Here is the input.
Amino acid sequence: MHHVVSATTNPAKIRAILHAFNEIFGDGSCHIDAVSVDSGVPEQPFGSEETRTGARNRVANARHARPEADFWVAIEAGIDEASTFSWVVIESNHQKGEARSATLPLPEIILQKVRAGEALGPVMSRYSGIDEIGRKEGAIGVFTAGKLTRESVYYQAVILALSPFHNAIYR
Here is the structure.
């Protein structure tokens, strides 16, 4: 059984990681150990590079916190231009995989508040009335009428980032 360290305690992210690992390596193939670690970037990262840096930093900090694990996984959500997205970074002792998620264009009324310094999660909680929306369906769930959620979009990105770990051509 793989010991997987999630560099977050966010339930939507943990569910996505567990679902993706079970899909790739088989049901019950891993145990998720969630740790809260610092990203080294602002609460609301802007741009692809700052967001990817946050995910890379979280993996490094998770590795430091739980060095005995088989995999370390970070999902960092950010804002790029007028959209929200995330970077997934996965490392093992011998391999690394990174993938960017799908992007969701955000309405200007939401972007104005985020650009003014508020994080997307609290803005969306106020807009939607859903407490701690970032730990649930997220803006993606609201604006896609539940057709997609944070978890479903993160799941796809985790699957993509896992590609180097089970395809020999990457090695």
